[in-house]
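Entry type: protein chain
Record version: 2
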Amino acid sequence: MLRALGQDTCYRVGLVLLPGFSIMSLASVITPLNSANRISGRQLYHWTTLSLADERVLSADGMPYPVDTPLATAADFDAVIICAGESPQLTCTDLLRPWLLARLKQRRSYPLELGALDAGSYVLAHMRLLDGYSCTVHWDYLTVMRESFPQVEVTNKLFVFDRNRFTCAGATATLDMMLYLICYHQGGELCAAISEQLNCERIRDEQDSQRAPMQNYLGVGQPQLIEAMALMEANLEEPITTAELALLVGVSRRHLERQFQKYLQTTPTRFYLQLRLQRAQQLLRQTNMVLLEIGLACGFANKNYFCKCYRDFFGTPPGEERRNIQGAAARRSVITSVLQ
């Protein structure tokens, strides 16, 4: 994990904007950091936008974004975050890699921390700066990263912290990652205040995965695995055993288990349980169904077992999560009535 901060330490972040970066992802970094400073009344975070050379960087939306300084004149940082878009220009690494390596080798009491948004993980991996690390990337790049960089453990999580590296899938996952980072640095009370200020109902954590089209992160070369996952999603109320799944897709149980482990780093049983619990969470938040009905709809015949599995996976019992949701709705109703 990243280093802990002292009480009066200001965490300095360098944001390297590569051509085609996502403004949404960039805002999801800056906004919670700014909120942390404002709510705490202290300068907890300072950020600087950086470019390879130019004064402006063209975003994915075609907007020229002004930056604070080019790499050549940048100050020292506690963390550097690579902000890349859907099609990162790998030629940029000719300038970026020497600059990052020089800072990684600087004598200091703590190592430089490297982060990445969207396809920024692909850029770091291309520069061999993720070798031996676990990371994530936008699902568009999952397959190509796994094939191109076998020395990197690529997951489909929303965000991943591994020692002095932190990566995320971009877009709204960026906000989750930054809130998680602030919580680690400053504690849950400030993080909760920022979350409430930003109308962020729940901070997703490292256990949450991207909801991506299966073909996009498995590729077209795994038809049996894709079919097995589709069968799971279609049979949440009455789960199918792993042996039955293997028979339906035409492979042995052992082969199916190996495929899940190789491409998803989990077992069929665990993956199936995750799908059922994610569906249960959706029903919990969007319907008035009682817990027993939700459990039955997601393949849990026993309410107590359902509650235990839910708590183990999400960290909060389903009953408590529903009460939190109802409490938030009640607070919004009071505020709305006052404003009217």
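Comment: The longest helix spans residues 318-339.
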